[in-house]
Amino acid sequence: MPPPPVPSCGKTKQAIIADVSKVLSRRKNQVVMDLGSGWGTLLLPLARKFPKHHFIGIEYGCIPYFVSKFRARKISNITFLRQNFFNSDVSKADIVLTFLMNSTMAKLTPKLLKEAKCGALVYANRFQMKNVKATRKVFLGSKYDTYYVYKM
After folding, report:
1. According to the model, what pLDDT value does residue 62 have?
2. What is the predicted pLDDT for the residue at 21?
3. Which domains does the chain show, CATH number per domain?
4. 112 and 78 in contact (C-beta within 8 Å)?
5. What is the C-alpha to C-alpha distance for residues 40 and 56, in angstroms, rounded to an integer?
């Protein structure tokens, strides 16, 4: 049974979109993967803004997955997959986005350390990778409005 979706929202979502947008505007042919993509609230605006990059949302929950697929139906550079992200191939991602609980981040950390490509950026909304020092911590006024950036 998948956990209930908790969509990225507010100023943290906007800050992550702005931060990732800066990276994408300087690079070519990037693959951005959102693990636990939910309703697609991070990927959809990025995919619309950056048609030359590819965006992949991994979502296990049936309803958020189908909502995301429907919302992305006219956007050619975005793909949503209904699968467990622990079984997903993250090795092709240049940027990985997460908004996962502490316990899930603890389980995901070894996978990212092992499989993420060298130089990939991991954006962790609110919940940090386990025993890994962030390259940057972005504090937007409260612990609930904080995200971490890791360079693999």
Report:
1. 94
2. 98
3. 10-151 (3.40.50.150)
4. no
5. 10
